[in-house]
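hiii, so i know i said id send this last week but things got crazy w the move. better late than never?? heres the sequnce for the chain we talked about at the cafe, plus the structure i predicted for it. fair warning i was half asleep when i ran it
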Amino acid sequence: MQAKSVSAGQGISWFKCGWDLFKQDFGTWFIMFLILVGLSIVLSFIPFIGSLALMIISPALMGGFMYAASEMDNGNKIEIGYLFQGFRDKARMNKLLILGGIYLLLQVLLIIVMFSLIGGSVMMSASETGSVDPADIMSSGMGFSMILIILGGLTIMVGFIYSTPLVMLDNMAPIESIKASYSAGFKNILPLLVFSLLYLLLAIVAIIPIGLGFLILIPVSITALYCSYKSIFH
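okay and structure toks below
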């Protein structure tokens, strides 16, 4: 499956499309999101294992949102149970869990690299001065290391932004979905940048009412992500 290159303005259109899908049945989308938040909170109370488990099953849960968005986009009604659609098909479930495992592994490697590049120097600076001076961090070269780590994190994110819908909706293999996601990301840097900037602006607005705006912004962003996937791959 080949990714298409779309115009920068599509970054705005994706949000409009996501809002159109959300408002068709905002109650179901809202409940699905609350269940996801509740599940995340419950797993967070399980030391270490809970966070790892959440990271591994996240693609399967996100796959449920992608499935629901696809069904609604095709004119069908959606159900709250669609959140767990990624677990109902064993073949897809295994692929989505493998995807989560790969993501977890890459995050662990990124953390190891981060501590290798920054951790030792920061600890040495703190032991010598009793505190960490940001100016010392920049002058010692750690600032450059931090930039590299941020770029590494963004690179990982690009590889997974479309991997879940590609596995869930197109039954693509995990590694192939990551490759296709990279291809889509590099071909569509400008619309994705517009999409990200628009999200940041909306996030600022969402913070104002005690952060309650995120209860709408995040589900809309998820449906908008589906719209971007459809725009680029279909």
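btw The chain has a mean pLDDT of 88. thought thatd interest u
miss u guys!!
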